Queue: 2 jobs
Job 1
Amino acid sequence: MHNKSISELSAGLRQGAFSSVELTRHFLDRIARHDERLNAYITRTEEAALAGARAADARIAAGEAGPLTGIPIAHKDIFCTDGIRTTCGSRMLERFTAPYDATVVSRFKQAGAVVLGKTNMDEFAMGSSNETSYYGAVRNPWDTTRVPGGSSGGSAAAVAARLCVAATGTDTGGSIRQPAALCGITGLKPTYGRVSRYGMIAFASSLDQAGPMAASAEDAATLLQAMAGFDERDSTSAQEPVPDYSAALGGDLAGVRIGLPKEYFGAGLDPAVAASVEQAIDEYRRLGAEVVEISLPNTSLAVPVYYVVAPAECSSNLARFDGVRYGHRCEAPRDLEDLYKRSRAEGFGPEVKRRIMIGTYALSAGYYDAYYLKAQQIRHLISDDFARAFREVDVILGPTTPGTAFALGEKADDPVSMYLSDIYTIAVNLAGLPGISVPVAPADGRPVGLQLIGNYFQEARLLNLAHRLQQATDWHKAAPAEFE
Amino acid sequence: MQWETVIGLEIHAQLATRSKIFSGASTAFGAAPNTQACNIDLGLPGVLPVLNREVVRMAVRFATAIDAELGRRSVFARKNYFYPDLPKGYQISQYELPIVGRGHVEILLEEGAAKRIGVTRAHLEEDAGKSLHEDFHGSTGIDLNRAGTPLLEIVSEPDMRSAREAVAYARKIHQIVQYLGICDGNMQEGSFRCDANVSVRPMGEDRLGTRAELKNINSFRFLERAINFEVERQIDLIESGGKVVQETRLYDAARDETRSMRTKEEANDYRYFPDPDLLPVELDDAFIEAVRSDMPELPDAKRQRFSEAYGLSAYDASVVTASLSLADYFETVAEAAGDAKLAANWVMGELAAALNKENLEIGSSPVDAPRLGAMLRRIADNTISGKIAKQVFEAMWNGEGGADEIIEARGLKQITDSGAIERVVDEVIAANPQQVESYRGAEAAKQGKMLGFFVGQVMKASQGKANPKQVNELLRQKLS
């Protein structure tokens, strides 16, 4: 049952082959059986899930079911959920329960999806390995000595091990695509503004974007359909109409121009990963696409720019966690200064503190022009690179990450090497473009992700390209044996 | 040495919107603590601000009123600092690109001359909450009802040269925002707050001296006092060999002094940067045109019109246009009375005194404008005398009804029947033979004054109701 697609499950529910309660129990059982090894969930919501499943069954019986009604999913623990704790992977919010639902959460509620729980993540989405979570590292279902990637590592591992049908994630510099690649699933970061950020705890507001993480492009399309659209509570959400993503699947690739940025295939790329990507490129050629080399000359500036912009915004976004109104407060503060210092010192982990300090520095008087302003200027250059490329090609293709999943602890003490694992994904956020990671042939038994980058609001095209590859190959169907 | 004072003001005008600048919570004053703070005002994780369009309209109105350049593209920025009543750890304000650019207003100096004061800029921002230090036994209470209330911060050029000028400028801005209907101007409730940047320099010097910023000033009177104290303090300091340091000083009204709050070194580095949660505000021509075509009459124009249409002196016109509510009151009275000068005298005299005595604003006057106007019409048509009118006014003030009702009930109608007046005059003449004799024997120049005695007696005998003009005429006739 857990290896079925959303449309198969939805058909099964409507035909009465099984109920949503049965389906939900099946996934709850799997979580109970397997999650101790993976630590993909921070909070499990068995009772709420079963209540949701019963409601979904009633809706199905009444003939009012949509494609997600009764489908068990999981939310990254960065989305506020009314009445269910939201930790954001941090000690700071260990006992925080929001009094409201994020827009993404309420849209899935309206669609009738069943929520199994809240998935693990790097603390405040800051990390590329899920090791910065206060709730412990998540393990990669393909090799539990390795990381699942991050920051949406819990969602990626849960989908890969089939501890949920699909999950939500957020992506600020690669946090959906990189763990999707490392766990062998499909993950889409939509265009900035495509999905509302309301109720999603902010890391870097100008980069954050929520998206679907699923077993296939087809499933991802169904999820995105529920998530996308303008929200009056988010001024940065786009008024752009939402197309029918599922209807766009299956479109012909003949004549589609795919650009390979030479900067994405240079030094630093694991040859085994490169080989897997090459195989997929050959598939696209067979499907009728035209493949050309392009250049994104400012690629090497993306990581340094990101590590000014994202920390700068986070230093401000995380100021609200001060121990005054909610969240962790230190014991017996002597005075206000002490309350601030100890609450924050105790509530935040080292990576979060590192970024707050970098960001505070970058915005300080006398440094602002040299760092923040300069970074914003370079950000424009990076966007211009893509704009030029999209005058020549329809879509850009490359590896999602330079290597496969690394061992737990391998990069934990080397932030720069960790930051470089997002080298191919970060520029996409800086430009606000959509990007999708699709599993291709594994390397050394570990998943490899292929990234497709589209022009603004071209999610349908990306999903179609991913879908055509998944129709032509079986790479996305591979499942980690240990969790069968 | 001769010193010159240089003053610039930063005025925070709370915009009179129903809901907050970035949330739908109410802005009403005086609700129980934290009952008007929604998820957004509380700065909960995940919430986002959405700009209230009304504040933009109000800012554009203000820009139009002070003939300012408009920031066609203005940007909200975050001003980062930690404070318990600042829920997000930053205040959303405007920094490099404000919505209102350079403009100016004219103030009237005592000598009657006008002076132009430059406005550097005005920008939109959200207010913080309030920290409550009383009643919490060593702890601090936080009330976030005010958090997110829209403010327009109006920054002047350092164009003022005395406390008086500063007050005149502050009053002018106060008057304009009220006329525009964008601020209620209530200084007690903090809807209109002034900070003053004050420095001194030797007369003739071009460079500005080091300034102190004075805060916590909640009336025009205190603004004048705080500046005067500070100017004296700075001059004394320099003359005794000291140096003024750049700092923020709090005005203590009880002691009538300013005290250092923090120096420049202790000042926060606010780490301003554009708020990524809000789009830049782009003003299009249609929006600006719509605001401009819907502007109310402004104070200067109203003053001019009053002085022309109602024949008021420049002084009277400026007094009755001091606030929009007073001007509206006056205009209603004048129309109803049919005599503008009489209306001006009453509004600025009897009414102002009565309001002042009970510490009331014009808006809460027990005698409304139509009633006062109706009473003044009874003076103009000789139904009552000005003196009787004071009695009628007092009765109206005490809630005894309208003028006609009171005149009727108390029998205050003026006696204009010459036969009736003549009878009283004859009685008075008959009862005072001695005075009559001395009057008749006096020189013409002195008679005028002596006539007053007889007028007084007649008025007394008629309980003030005899028409004074007729009484005078009859007495003159009969005594000659």
Job 2
Amino acid sequence: MGRARDALVAGLLLLARKRKRRLWPGQRERIVPPASRNPGSELLATLLLLAAAGCAVAFIVVYVLDRLPAHTQLLGLSLGLACLFVAAALIVTAKRLIVTEELEDDYPAEEHVDEQETVLQLVADSGFSRRRFFKLALGAAGGALALAVLTPIASLGPAIDLARFYATPWRRGRRLVDEHGRPYRASDVEEDTLYTAFAEGSDKEQLGSSLVLVRLPKDRLKLPAGNSGYAADGIVAYSKICTHAGCAISLYRAPLFQPDEPTPALVCPCHYSTFDPASGGRVTFGPAGRKLPMLPLTIAPNGELRAAGNFDSAVGPSWWGVRTKRPTS
Amino acid sequence: MIRKLVRFLDRRTGTAPLLRKTLRYLFPDHWSFLLGEVALYSFVILVATGIYLTLFYENSTATVVYHGPYVPLQGQEMTQAYRSVLDISTTVKAGLLIRQTHHWAADIFIAAIVLHLIRIFFTGAYRKPRELTYWIGLTILLVSLLEGYLGYSLADDLLSGMGLAIGYGVAVSIPFFGANLAALIWDGPFPGKHDFFSRMYVAHVFLIPALIGALLVLHLALVALRHHTQFRETRRQTERKVVGIPTFPGQTPRSLGLFFAVAGVLFLLGGLVQINPIWLWGPYHTYISTNGAQPDWYLGWLIGALRLVPGFDLTIGHYTLVANPFWGGAALPSLVFIFLYLWPWLERRFGGDSAYHNLLDRPRDAPMRTAIGMTTLTWVFLPFVAGSSDRIYVTFGLPYIPQIWAFRVLAVVAPPLAGLIAFWVCRELQAGERVERRRKRAEEEAELA
Amino acid sequence: MRRLLVTGLLALALPAAAAAAGDQQLGYRLFGQYCVACHGVAGSGIAPARVIGTGPQRVPRQQLGLAPSLQGVGALAADFYLRTGYMPLQHVGLQPRRKPVIFDEPQLEGLIAYVASLGRGPKVPKPHPERGSLSEGMQLFTDHCAGCHQVVGEGGYVTGALPPPLKDATSTQIAEAIRIGPYVMPRFSTKALSPSQVNSIVRYVRYAKSPDDRGGWAIGHVGPIPEGLVAWFLGMTALVACCIAIGRRFRRG
């Protein structure tokens, strides 16, 4: 059944081809068969193009007219619609106005064996491939030159000396100041809230400078042996930079009524690493693999908060040597 | 007129035969073959809008105090970089339209590449002789992820800075030399010096776009040299004969139409849907952060993976062999890309098929490939969803910690399950078709008898 | 609709609340009905030590009513918890969430007056956002609040709790919450944030309810997640539809 239909179609096509062969004198054979006339679609495409032109003009008008409300929206609408109208006109053209040929062609040959052989013979005949010592020297020159050219990359940064990764501005006696440079007094620091502090005179953006400062009831503090004496009158200070991926710890979970509610915790909003301020910055939840660095505090005779030394561990996200050295001033 | 032009060209360059061949080059016709074109046209829009933005962007981290028209930020200290993006969004006429279109184009560009890659994978289009095309395409995707991340970071708003901090965390977590690498990139520890912004800038506006452009040219040249693959839908389409629509007149209005459709959709999005309103985020400082910060969608799988990895650093004595962010931020994407790069070879090696292929498979024709593809896709998709687990909690009330545990379990269980189901579905579909064919043959025989 | 109604009621109720001249007798009766089981007689609180006496850590969470003393919290706290619907709470241990208020205006005033009478405590604050500075407010909000509530006040997550979005919070409630620190929120005294700073924060939070969305449809002010959804479900869907309109689908048979 289907075969018969195919044969019929093929026959008709052949006939049609024959017909086309009869040309007017001076007329050349067509490459692309003629498309059927389609006045409706032609009109539609024309209208769409005119609409596009209208929208494009509207864009210019909107641009020139200042002080329009929703300026950006009108600009986007006019330009976007102009493009979409052109797109629609082109799709109508493709589908309705021009003829869609379905042609056949050969895929390119898989390989050209003769050409390959010729290339190989060329290389062989040149004689380069046989001189082993020469090839070695060529390799050495190439490799050394490549290395030489890449060497200046080392100027980009201190790739070998990582001392700055351990450096913080904190040392014994350094005052804790707020964002405006005012020193913190121990009496300023209240329970159930958090403060951001910096090393006096330091660059606030440096990872080692910023602290989060909280005060806990003294009987709640359970500092490990290594951190005993780090708190001053119940005030504890931790690096504000999360040891997981370096975001700022700006969340303090401060329960209003302890028995019913989660315990106090410092939280990083990027991946919700959660640290216990009462126990020296231990990780209680989340992906952080290292406790929060803790800064020892003292209270000066005039009541100001001061550092009693540097952090107990290096600041910032962990790297190969983060646990090998204590931070330096 | 046209005759004059063609004659001029041919007489000066001798390219009339090439021109004729180009105009009659055949494009096999299927809607899914157009996804790569969508990516290409998004790239064109990206370059055009990007050039416009560079005319206004100031690549400087010098601090200034804002006195512009946007009231909530007046008097705030910010970098010149952020201030210039703020100006593009507020005072430059049509600046916000172009900026938003650029950002949407980036999101759509990578979405289109991903869909294109999925089509290529599941139809086996990467097989001999098209592995090079496939590898170049993968490289374009990889480089585009970096390019998008740099663009997101250059604005220097609060989300940019938090994203950079996480990028730094991942960089230093690389075993042995991570910190050295980061020191090279940032010129010391985070947030680095002024040089760092210059480096991001030159990479974002010149080095990487040029690289993507060059790779695109190679990609397209290779496609043309080997001709496009095709589905076997009629008897005319064989391994040796390509059937398709010629460049001219058939394909030209189709491709141009698609270009204008892409441009139209992007400009509409750019004008009507707000993207990355940096004036609402405010400037970045290392000591502030906001809840709900996220990377653009194409890096969502990484933030999800960072959240799913349990909290530990792998240490040997005092040395930190693997710091935590490495698993989610570097190991997962490396693994996925290494797998994708090796896949054509893996399939040849273990599937035993090293023949030339111009005809595409339907996903059901290669159940093993479809199963492995679904496994990988699920494995990437789960952390992708986990990346928004906090907002899922805020919006739908599913508690966060149980979600994280559920995603951890699913990340192990769901991918192989998805693969098995895909395999089974393919087999069933094949069996269904076999039955159908047998029935048809029997009917034909009955008709003859 | 209901939320609208409640907000409307709240708006109407505000001036009256400031007067705090409620009927204490009514308040006393309602306290006995709704509050005493957890907050104790005369709001003296029920602490875990009194229930079991073996140390606070061992008390099963939902064993009995456990709630803080209300003596000295003043009209401020009562006004906040009752007018947000945070109290009464279904059971102890839950995070209080914004709910429809179950009391009418005289009942609210009575309860507030009663709680205020339990001890000397702060009055209901009267913030003046119009006196605050928007830019100072944004800066203070970013420094103190954005970590939990998100920089445009869209709410967020903190391990174990949900900092609420601030879209429904009235000026008074914002000022009250800053001073109370409900549930696990930090508490800011007048020393940490002065009344004029609170004015600025309130002004910013009010602004953030409908900020400058010059870019168009705001899609939630939370950045890349809704943006990704739009990119895929609007942008890519439209473009795939274009591809299907231009290219061919499978031929059957």
